[in-house]
Structures are given as structure tokens and as C-alpha cells.
Amino acid sequence: MKFKIGDILARVRSWFPKAQAKLKEHAAELEAKFSEVDRIPLNFTLRQKLIDRLLELDAPNPYCEEVRSQLSQRLKQWQQDETAPNGFVLLGTPVDSFSKLLDTAISSWENDSILLVKTLASSTVPHDVSEIVRQLRKTSDSDFVRSANRNLVIVVPDLSQCFLRCVEGLDSIDVLQDCVLRDRSRFWLIGCNTFAWNYLDLACDLSVSFPEPSILPELSPEDLKTWLSPVCHLADCQFEKEADENENSETEDDEDDFWNSKAEKSYFHRLAELSLGSAAVASNLWLRSLHHIEGEEGIFAQRPHLPELPTFDKNDRFLLYSLGLHRNITVGDLAKTLGDSPLEVLQRVRRLQSVSLVRQPDEFFQLEPVHYPRLYRDLSNNQFRIGDSKS
Amino acid sequence: MNELIVPQFWIAQSNGNAVSNATEVFKEITTAKILQAIAVVVVAYFSTVAIDKVVRWLAEKVPLRFRLAIAQSLPFWQAFVLGLAIVVLLGLFLDFSANNLFAITGTVAVALGFAFKDYASSVIAGIIALFESPYQVGDRVTIGDQYGEIINYGLRGIRIRTPNDDIVSIPHNKIWTDAIVNANKGNVEAQTVVDFYFAHDIEVDRVSKILKRTAQTSKYTQIDFPILVIIEETPWGTHFKLKCYPIDARDEFVYQTDLIRRAKAALSKAGISYPKLSFRDQETLPE
């Protein structure tokens, strides 16, 4: 390795603005804590209405653009060169939904010469390996797929739902690899989270079938404002000014025409920074920042901040990693991945749910998105191999 | 002022036929110096205890990747405090002129050689082991018949915690004579080997796949470390060794249990048969 003094100096220099920003952030948080503004949380009905509206939002446009451009580019390579890979994997965080993203992206993808077949949609039998194997074989052997002539794309929306980390649970990945490598006349588009991808690549050499996975782009402050604006308008939310902002300060530069106020600009910049550019984390942080102020009309968005990670032990960490690995999972399946009894796992999950690390929107358990950035760092520091995207 | 009158020590040095001038080695001992010395000993003792507690506490609090680095700094900090205390104490009572230094070194060497040979050997081995690092705090070592995790690195020896939760003290001077088997050498991962025995007529590939999958899907496995299945044929059956690494070497025994439990469930489901031993076969079983 070459020793470069310039690199070291650049690194040391880069610490100063970071340290300054960190100090400023802590000061602002302390100030907000001790400020005399009485913040009142949103009532349940309004909060639920906003949650429903957030769930109805389409996937952010930059994500869809990335899917479409990567698909077009790789498909073209495969059609022109028989030795080019016949599939690609799109990676995102374990808290972002791939099914919706791929649905939105593909529905507006204009390419009449290509046929799309969706299989193993996450709504059907997640983690039931024998059923997944059966569906894969059925799709792969169907007359429609067989008759296609290098113009068919098979879409697997979320690979993390298509295996289970137990002794027989990787058989579905073997079958998928067999289908991909054996017949190169079909193209595969696969969505997967970084936890699952890193695990499957190390356990089953998945990158042999899907080299160079593509990572979803980080959403910029502008992207987040555009994406969240329908819900922001519904809530009619105003952005709280920070201590160092002037009253009624407006953005001055021409390039800042996009922003209505300095407060709004700084809010979304901070939101993008904290959320690591992930739509799921950002939307949950946005929701957490909303409140009423006593004596004032309307809804206000305070400077967003990441909640502290609750304390948890080594066994909780194994469970949280498993949740990330499979994204959406029942207690029974979670127990199989951990090799523990379902009752023991249920007790642990309920405890983590009570400290808001885990949520249960339906019968499946998921990681709570607002904790994802800090949880990612914690797992990485504790030697879990979870990939380096969005870090 | 209270002064203790002490006899004057004179040490004669011989150099060939000539006898050099004797030199006064000890300084005058006063009550103030004795109080100072007591204070130094007390401060050094409490500092060592405090360092021990703080470093151990910190090592358990930080993320896994930093744990061993912090735990391994403990003997250095303790050696530093101890060294500092010894220098201050010697400075209080001894006069370190060039001649005296030779005289003191010679006297100490003779005294240690006869009276504290083993103790001195352990201390010196401990200092050398700090730099040679045949073992460090947090490593899992086998020395003689003892296997366990090093939980303390002292002046004279180490303490290891065995799988039975016994604490065993082993002097450092074992490094001169005994083989030191270190399973993880400063890393948090250490290879775990689990033995499985089957009948001769089993499908070897099928069993290998099940064992490999068992390791790949254990929550304890460090997935980017190699997972190997080694097969050995014996007169009474086929011996499989599953070699893999846990994320944290401390989980070694629960990891082995997890692997055996899950592998047995999968093997039983697959109808894999175990060796059926005759009375004569039992004589050839490994220990």
C-alpha cells in the first residue's frame, strides 16, 4: 500500500467540518430540548391519515429511473452479446420496499419488444421454500417462457422473501441459480436488500449468476421534497426555523428558487443526510418530526433527528440481523432462522417492539425504519457482514 | 525531625586484581520518604485495580470489532504503572551512580538467581510475551492440558477461563518450555471443529451438503470465513469434521451445540444412519 501524506492531510482536514457539523447538531438538539416551545404530538387520526397517504405514494422517481436505465442498458448488452450476464440485481436497504418500486418502475417502462413475467411476488408464500421452488420451476418451464426468444424478462421483486436461513432454506437459491445459469435465453431482474445479498453471495456465490449488482441511488434533498410534497401539502406543514436563521429569511440565490424558505431547505438537507438517502427512513423521520405548537395554528416540522438506539444484547442483535435479512417475516420463520423456540423468539420480538426497534404492520415483523441508520452502524461494528452500501 | 539511623552499606567491587572504591548505595531513609513510598505503593495499587476495571468495562461496552484491541491494552497499562512505581521507589531509596548500578544489578541477579528463580523467570517471560505475543487477553489458548479464554494477564502469569467455568492460573514461564496453541491470535473469530460419525453406506455428498448448510445457516457463523467438511474413513464408520468460525469466539460452545442440534435434526429428517458398533469396534473408537 502506498503511503501518501496528501491523503492523510485531506482526511484530517475533512474531520474539521464534520466535527463542526456534529457539534452544531448536538447544540441544536439541546437547544430544542430546552426551548420553551410546547410541542404537542399529532392526534392518532391525523397521524394514521398521513401514514396511509405515505403508503399510497409511488416509489421515488430517482429509484424508478435507476431501475429503468439499468434494465435498458443491461438488457441491451445481453441481447447484443450472448456471453453477457442474463440478469441483474438491484440492491436497497432492508427497510425499503422492492415490490412497489419494481411495479412502479416497470409499469412505466416503454419497451414493446420485451415481455415481462413477474414471479415470486412477495405477497405470495414468503419463505415457504418448497412452494418457492415449485413456483420457480413452474415459471421457468412454462410454455410462454420457453417460447420466448431472447425477449423475456423474469422479475423477482424481492429475493429476501425467497429463502429462509435454515438448512433447507437455501434450496430455492440453488434452484434460482440453476435456472439462471442453465438457460441464458431469459433475462432476470431481481430486487434484494444489502443484508440478504451479502449473505447469499457469501453462502451461495450468487454474484456468479448476477455480477455487478446495482445499488439504488441515495435520494437528494430535492428528491425528498418532490417525493414527499403531496403529503406535505395534505398536512400543510410549516418548517420550524433554526436558531441561526433570521426571521422570515428567504433563500437568496437563483439556484435556490426550488426552496420556499431557508428553513425548508435546511430541513430537507438534514433529512437527506440522516436518512442516508433512503425513502423509507426519510418518510418515517419526516412523520416523527411533525407536531402542533401550543397557541399556533397548523402542523410544524421540527428539525429531524435520529432517535437513540435502545439498549439490546447479543441475542437481540442476532434477531435484528435476521429481520433485516428477510425484511418481512413471521415469528415461526424467524425462530427457524435463529434456531430458537418460537415462544422465546416471540418474547424477544415483543420486547424489541415495545422499544420501537421492531414493528408489525400485519402478521409480519419488520425493522423500524427510523432506527435503521444507527442499527446499520451497530451491526457493522459488531462484525455482521451487511455490505457497505448506504453507510 | 524523626530520622531512622540505618547502617551504612558498602559494597566492594573487584576488578581483576584491583579493588575499586566502595560506593554508598542506599540513600538516607527518612519518615517522609517512607510515607512517600507508601503513598506510591497505594496509588500504584489502586491505579492498577482501576485500570483493570475500566479497561474490562470498556472492552465489554464497545462494539465487538474493538473489544480485543482494548482488552489487550490492559497488561501494557498495568506494566506502565508498575514500572513507574518501581522507578519512583528505587529513586527514593537508591543512589544510581554508574558504579552502583553495576553493583545493584549484580546483587539483584544473584538474589533472584537463588531465591526467586521461577518467579523472575515468569516475570521476564511475561515481559517478553507482551512483545512476542504468543497469547493476549481474549485469546483462546491450550497450554498443557488446559484450554480456555485468557481473562487476565498478570505480572507472573495468565488466568484462563475453561469451558467448565474454572479459572486456571498459568505462569508465563511456560512459554520457555511448553507449546502454546492459540486458536484466534488476537481475532474475535476462532475456528470451531465439530465431529460427526455415520455408517459406511451413507451418501457422502448429501451429508456434506447438509453439514455445510448447517454451518452456513447458523446465526453464530461468521459467513465470510471458510466452511469446510473433512471426511475420514475408519473401520467402524465414516468420520466427518465440520470446520467453521463463529462471529465471536466466546460463543464457541453454544455454537457447537447449535451446529450439532440443527445438523442432527436435518440428518434425521433425511434418514441418514449412524454407525452401529459391534463390541469389537468399540476398542478402536477415538478418545
What secondary-structure arrangement, pairings included, does this model have?
The complex is a heterodimer of chains A (391) and B (287).
Chain A: H1 5-34, E1 39-40, H2 44-56, H3 61-80, E2 87-92, H4 98-107, E3 115-118, H5 129-141, H6 143-147, E4 152-156, H7 171-182, E5 187-193, H8 194-204, E6 214-215, H9 221-235, E7 237-239, H10 262-274, H11 279-289, E8 290-293, E9 299-301, H12 314-326, H13 331-338, H14 342-354, E10 358-359, E11 366-367, H15 372-381
Parallel strand pairs in A: 2-5, 2-6, 3-4, 4-5, 7-9
Antiparallel strand pairs in A: 1-8, 8-9, 10-11
Chain B: E1 10-11, E2 14-15, E3 18-19, E4 23-24, H1 31-61, H2 64-72, H3 74-93, H4 98-114, H5 117-132, E5 140-143, E6 146-153, E7 157-161, E8 167-171, H6 174-177, E9 180-182, E10 192-198, H7 204-216, E11 228-234, E12 237-244, H8 252-269
Antiparallel strand pairs in B: 1-4, 2-3, 5-6, 5-9, 6-7, 7-8, 10-12, 11-12
Helix pairs in contact in B: 1-2, 1-3, 7-8
Description:
- The complex is a heterodimer of chains A (391) and B (287).
- Chain A is an alpha/beta fold.
- Chain A contains 15 helices and eleven strands.
- In chain A, helix 7 links the parallel strand 4 and strand 5.
- In chain A, helix 8 crosses helix 12 and helix 13 crosses helix 14.
- Chain B has 287 residues and is an alpha+beta fold.
- Chain B has three domains: 123 residues, Helix Hairpins (Orthogonal Bundle), CATH 1.10.287; 43 residues, SH3 type barrels (Roll); 93 residues, 2-Layer Sandwich (Alpha-Beta Plaits), CATH 3.30.70.100.
- In chain B, 45% of the residues lie in helices and 19% in strands.
- In chain B, strands 8-7-6-5-9 form a five-stranded antiparallel beta sheet. A three-stranded antiparallel beta sheet of chain B has the order 10-12-11. Chain B has a two-stranded antiparallel sheet with strand order 1-4.
- Chain B is elongated and about 85 Å long.
- Chains A and B meet through helix 8 and helix 12 of A and helix 2, helix 7 and helix 8 of B.
